[in-house]
Amino acid sequence: MTAALAAAAGAVGFSASTLASPTQANSAVNLAALSLNSGQQLSGITTARIQARQLATRDSSRVQLADTTTKKQSAAAQLAKARAAKLTATQALTAKRASALAVAKAKAELAEKTARESATRCQIMVTGYHITATFGQGGSRWAHNHTGLDFAAPIGTRIGAVMKGVVIFADWAGPYGRQVQVRHEDGTVTWYNHMSKFSVSVGETVYAGDQVGAVGMTGNTTGPHLHFEVHPDGGAAVDPDPWLRNHCGLNPYTAG
Description:
The chain has four helices and ten strands, in the order H-H-H-E-E-E-E-E-E-E-E-E-E-H. With 256 residues, it is α+β, with helices and mostly antiparallel strands. The strands form two sheets. It has a seven-stranded antiparallel sheet with strand order 1-2-10-6-5-4-8. It has a three-stranded antiparallel sheet with strand order 3-9-7, with no helix packed on it.
């Protein structure tokens, strides 16, 4: 800095000790240059020094800007990395939960299938019924004493098998009307009579609750109902009431 510029810098409040940075020096030089507008001319060397100081200040600003940009880019990259890691963890947790749910569902379905296909599982044959005739009951409606249990229900009411078995008969049976017979694994045969339609065919395996037909009033009957009979080992009919209670744990007077 020339003596004139130094003097001018001192005049505007800058000392040599305060001109440590390029910015301070540049400011001092500019102010000093302005103070010489009274007619003094700067030498070529002084002008070059001023321009060098200004260039240094711009370079320093560029370096600071580049450093700030680099830090911002680094922070953005770290944030993106953290977000990606969080997304990966969330996806892994979702997949783990989905797998656990699938396993639980498969186990539940297997347990349900096993229970449904159990040879000892029982289910009442119809719903929404009331008992209208019992085993051994006499009357003019039958040639002999009543051989089954009558479940009165509206025509078309679904009739299900009482337990697992194989259909051995599905046809018209004279006074019984449309009849289905199912042989169970212990040899007992159950009869479903007076049906309006069949839902099974001979040789078909049915499980407790599987539909075998629908309530009707075919054959000798005065109203729509299921006439249900039980024949141990395919022999003579027995009272369905105690058989349902003891063999199946069903009370026909409350189950429907």
